[in-house]
Structures are given as structure tokens and as C-alpha cells.
Sequence to fold (461 residues):
Amino acid sequence: MPTSEEVRGLMAAGESMTVEFKESFGKEAIETVGAFSNTRGGTVLIGVTDQGLVVGCTPSGETLREWANRIGQNSEPRVIPTLSKVDVDGAAIVAIEVQQYPMRPVAIQRRDYRRVDRSNIPMTAGEIAELHLRSRGMSWDLQPAFGATFVDLDEAAIREYIRRANEVGRRRIRDLETIEEVLEKLSLAAGEMPTWAAVLLFGKSPQQHLSQASVHCGVFRNDLNIIDDLMIAGRLPDQIEDTMDFIRRSTPVRFEMTGDATRAQTWQYPLIAIREAVVNAICHRDYSIQSHTEIRIHEDRLEVWSPGGLPQGITLPDLQRPHRSVLRNLGIAAVFYDLELIEKWGSGVLRMQEACREAGMPPPAFSEDQGLLVTFRSTVTDPETLRAMGLNERQIGIVHAVREQTSITNNDVRKKFGVSKRQATEDLAALEERQIIERKGTTGRGTRYVLKGAEGAVKGQ
Fold:
């Protein structure tokens, strides 16, 4: 039973993924119980407005039993919450505490809900199936690959995995073990059939069995003008290397003399961060969806899109802080971990952010758009980001002018925006300080400004 002080703390923090306010008990409160059961658990406070104001309620002991019965009768499997009456500033509030249900999903009047931020969202058929498997310690990729046999697996690829796994040291596999024994230990065999993970990781031709298991790469001059296009197929570990090869030859790289015999390379985007995003997309995407993983390279950004969005149990805000690793594809992730392609500590996003910071770039942006979209920008040019950095509309206009004209001078700023020399100098200095533009040329009339990192770059080899 929560104390008055604990309830005040919940009210002060406001509604969230695990807290909901309701003025009265009814259908919406029961739906929230179902959403909490399917997500992380939570507390529904009855007698509190959406704004967190106490209006109170007058439940008796019989009322609480009736509410608990209504929740149980409307949920399948039956949810048994804890209901407590708590006095807050002289008013009675009912706290309905719900734990994450062990065997999910829980349906409320035959509809399944999940909690996203402060809302209850009806689940799709795919989300229901994924949650059903996850709550039983299973995943889609560990299901039998109907239509495939062990003959469809490449023994040489499996032997190479065994060699590399032993070399890395994260899994010890004896040389005397048969292929069948290895697959059994990895849960990649389902009776007389390989699993989908086995086909995708070790298949001779994985796309014959799952055509969507490819990476579609493109280089765009604009949204309609495609100047390079490649579909990458094959086994998943090989897709990573082939995708990175495409990115390297399709993005600019600068060569700088270091004084040694070699030249230092500075890529438009930090390859460590890009590789992390590519690995995550290939490892964690939803392979049951009829869409390819996509790499889109534009002049000012690189996008990595993976079908299926984030795995259930993790949210976009979670990505911005240390978090537990949540795996959609248990079989694929286990092999990727053995090959040192991923970690199991939920640290991949933080490594991407750090690599971008070290390169003087903005951190990658994450959004859910019919899947998970990771966007890298070599320079900050979109208005919303610039405003968030504290720039005014004139300074944003200067950034766009630099982008359109390739470079700009102090005199150009004065003429275009009708400001004094001093104001133009201050605006350019503000943009330079934020590492959005950089100065080129000598002091005075020979000085011009370009987007940071835009000059001295050639296409990668």
C-alpha cells in the first residue's frame, strides 16, 4: 500500500508510462490496467484530475472489491491488482497498483493495449504475437523456418562462426562437436528444421526463404533523384560488411597530412557510429514484416531505417540514457554477440552519440516512422534543431544561405539580411562557435564561411 507521501510524489511527477490519473473509475481506468499489465506495470490514481489536482472519491471497502472484480472480469487472463485507499490532504484517493503480467498479452474486453508515454495504444497483430513470444522467453527468429531444411545451411559458414566465436572467447565450442550439436546448443534447430535465425545467419541463400531480409541502399540528390541504388542480400554478418562498403564509397572523406607517411582520413560521418546503427538495424529489425532495411544517403544526412520500430519494452526516451538491452531476435543477437558485433549492455546508442560528439557533429536523431529511423547529419541545418540550439530566425537564414550558396561572406550577410557589419560579425561568430560553420581564407575581404566539414572532401574509395 503506497503512503500519502508516495502518492504525492506520483502526483507531482505527473502522468507517465507508469502513472495515470483518473477522476473516477470506469472503462478507461480498466484499459489502463491492461496497458500497464502488458508493459512495465504501474499505478492508476482514482480521484485525481489529468492536471494532478485532487478531487477525491468516496469508496467503501465493498466498492474496492467491486472495482477489483470488474477488472478481473474484463481482463483475460484475469488481472488481480492491489487497490488501496490513501488519504491525501484530507481527501480519499484510490491507488490501483498493477504488476507487469508474466504471461502477456492481457486483453481488456478482447482488445490488447500497451503503454506508450502517457497513452494506451491498441496493439497490432504483429505486436501481440511478439509480446506473446517474449513473455515466454522466445522470439520469432527462433521459430521453425517452414520450407527450409538443414541442407539449406552452409556448413562452411557455421564452421567459420565456430572459429571466430572461439577466437573472440565469448563462447567456447569444441572442434569435435557436430554441426547439429552446435545448432542445438544455440537453439537454432527446431526439431527436424532450422530456425529462421539459422537460415538468416548461415543459409546458402537466405533470401530464397525470406525475401525481405535484405538491405536496400540508395544515394539521393533529392527525394526523387536517385543516383545510386544497390540491394544487398546474403547472410546477415556479410550484409554488415557489404553495407559499410557501400557507405564508404558513397560518402565524402577528407585526407589530411599528419607529418607521417600516411594521411589521416576524416569521413563525413564517423564510421564507428554508422556501423553501430547498421548492426543494430540488421540485428534488431522485425523480419516478419515485408520490408527491407534501408540506407538512404542524402547530401546533408544519412538515414538508417529498420522495419518494426523499437522492440517492446524500450522507448525513444530510454535510448537517450543508459538502459538495459532489449532484444527482439534472441537467436540472431546471440550469434552477433559471440562474433563481437554487439554488446548486451544497451550501450550502443551512447557509443554513437560519443563518436558524433568527438567528430564535432550533432548526435543522431531517433524517431519511429513505420519502423525505427536513425538520422545522422554532418551539419546542423534543419530549422527545428537550430532553434533548439538558441539561434534566432536571421541566424537560421544565414545557415540556409550558406547551404544554398556553398559559402558566404560578411558582406553577403549585410546585403541579404540588411544588418550592420557588427551584427553580421556577431551572427557569424555565433554560428562558428556552435561549430555549424567554419572560416576559410585570410582575415578581411578574403574571409568566407562554409558549413563545417563541407570543404576538402571527396567521395570515399
Notes: The longest strand covers residues 91-98. The chain has 16 helices and 22 strands. The chain has four domains: 4-123, 140-208, 215-377, 383-459.
